[in-house]
Amino acid sequence: MSETRQYSRGEWISAAVFFVIVMAVAAACWPSSSDNSSSSDSSKELPAQPHDSGEAAPTGGLTVTASRFNEWPFTVDAGVLRCEAGAVTFEPPAGPRYAVNGTAKDSGYPAMTPIWADDKALGNGLKVDISEVLDKGMSLC
User: Fold this and answer.
1) Taken in order 6, 10, 11, 15, is the CA torsion positive or negative?
2) What is the mean pLDDT of residues 33-39?
């Protein structure tokens, strides 16, 4: 007879966070139905000014605030969102720059766990969805 393994709360939370991140990255990479470009050239010209929902930050990136998003995943009210070579980072006023996606984490930026807000609706230590902020960050690439 085999015994059933009991997973700890931390293992469940880790699995849920991993799932949310994977889904957010997949959604950001999936072509949208409004993308009508049929060009096989995937290179993009960088815009002179960042897109909506923020002001250009003096050191590069995009200054973003909680009021400009439907779901704000951070415990701070504002910061600078950047994308460099596919690495999306968020820097609150008190620093440091945190990884928002796996590319940034692989580049050596610390995990955003210290400023990632708990989702009160879901409870159990699950975190607020980061997909909206991740999408905005990826649009800066």
Assistant:
1) positive
2) 41
